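Hi L.,

You mentioned the student needs an example of a multi-chain input paired with its predicted structure. This one should do, with 661 residues in total across all chains.
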Amino acid sequence: MKSLNKILTGIIGIIFSLLVGALLIKIQGNSPINAYKALYDYGLGSWFSITSTLNNSTPLILTGIAAAIAFSSNVNNLGQPGQLIIGALSAALLGYYLPFPGWFGIITILILSGIIGGLYASIAGILKKLYKMDEMLTTLMLNFIADYLTLYLATYPFLDKKSYVPATKMIKKEYFLPSFKYLNSSFFIAIFVVLISYFVVKYFKKGYEWRMMGHNPDFSRIGGCDNEQNLMWVMFYTGFLSGLAGALLILGGTQHRFIKGIGANYGWDGVMLSIVGANGILETSFFSLFFGFLKSGGVGMEFEASIPSEFIMVLQATIVLLVVSTRSVFSYYGDKIKAYSKTQKVVKAHE
Amino acid sequence: MNNILISIIRDSFSSATPILLSALGGTFTFYANVFNISMEGMMLIGAFFGVLGSFYFQSWVMGFLFALISGVVASLIFSLFAILLKTDEFLTGIGMNMLALGGTTYLLRNLFNVKGAFISPQIKSLPTWDIPGLNKIPVVSNILNKHPFIVYIAIILAFFVDFIIFHTKFGLRLRATGEDQETARSLGINPEKIKFSSILLSGIFSAAAGTFLSLGYVTLFSENMSNGRGWISLAIIVLVRGRPLGILLMSLIFGFFESAAFSLQNINIPSQITSMIPYIVTILALFIYSVYKEKSTRSAKKEVEKIKEI
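Structure written out for the whole complex:
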């Protein structure tokens, strides 16, 4: 499917789901127009809203392309939530204990947390490579394990005693990522990583092997690629991206510490985004901005139109279902129409 | 000591029930070759609507009924996308799970105005059964008697589902559709219909599992309370290749580990560590399964080579 086609079908699906959302708001007794106006005002209405949209979309971009690269390589890595939270915890601990100065420290933290996230994802990769265990189930189980493990570490060994909820101590001030007019620099790091990933997948030999593995594993094997080895690399790389997303949440977010629930739903949002973006890296990043818009706009809907911000979660799921079904309907019935017109031509030529 | 052991075994039955029920539902879709990963979400939906019905009508019957209806509706939505609109089943499943998570959280906030968990004395829990003959036997009675009635029904259902899948016309058609959809169609079976009914059954079973979670196991609804049980049941189905009696055995083993892990909290092991155990056990079980499978395929290959040599 062409890139424009992916984005267009995505937008059609989003329009449908906004209509469904309007219906839900109406049933609830609120005015959809007011609600969507609040969504717009808080998501795009002013410079502050735009920056909060971009800040919100930062982790989504990274988990989104992580899922997109994994899925387009035929690797069912559903472990983004776990890898993200492991990366976030490592960033929080490194940020507190690391002795390095300023920028050098930040770069070290980002890379190390990414690597730790990648290694965590590699557990599933190793199990798949050596024992042919289904990576979907193992990554899912590793999510829950990561969840409880980080919670344990934040509740007992690394607890900040002054805090009321399970949380680690705040990282050093010099490691905070700076903001420019409310826009946090972590957004630029995310964009930079997107461009790198795009080039890796599009122009590198490894990226080509990954894509071939996604298109047809048998073809890539016969062509001489080691599929198991590539799966390991995909696992590590996508885990790295999710871990990096977690680290940026700590260094660039508002809390600057690991706190219970900091991972929110970013991991699963990434999975949804890669579905909406049909596993394309640029398309997924594009829709990440839209999901970021929904997140910051959702706050506005809660303030202005008293619609709980959880409504956004419903809207996101509806978007996923409707975008995917729009696409499948287009391709299924499009093929049928094409085949029909072809037979008509053949029949006419015959006559 | 004895008392602890008895309570662990007793609790393993109630821990096993939600996994057992949703896995039994999922086995229908497994045999119909529908890649159904939405048990997790359907369980959550069932749990929520069970509490909703029980709260508004103050009766567990209505709660159970609400949950079953919600399961039917959820599976209708799933089939609308997966069968009618030909959407990829995996993607539909992820969408459904997210819809369930978002929808229940949203409704929790919207209807009851709470975040996190909803507890109320108005929620009536499922009745427990006092089985006449059983309550006279000393130890067995402590373990098996006075569970919420779904526990007994789930165990009976395991045998019943086994009978349906392997000894009835519907089961034969189900498996035929799963083996090869087009061949089944050529024999006059409507595979869409079969797939739809398998999804419907899976939705109803998972919703019942959810009701047990929110009205039997505890009497409350909390955000994302299914907490991976749907995924564990998916793993179990893979492990036993869908055999209902295997599912019964495996869920009891998982239930045992869950309740044993829970009782470890009594000796001051933090709950975060004990909560990890079911997921670690799942990975271990998958590990043992694949090592065993590797061995058996290797020995099968050797046999083939031997035959060739002869």
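You could point out the following to them. The first strand of chain B starts at residue 117 and ends at 118. Strands of chain B lie at 117-118, 221-222.

Best wishes,
N.
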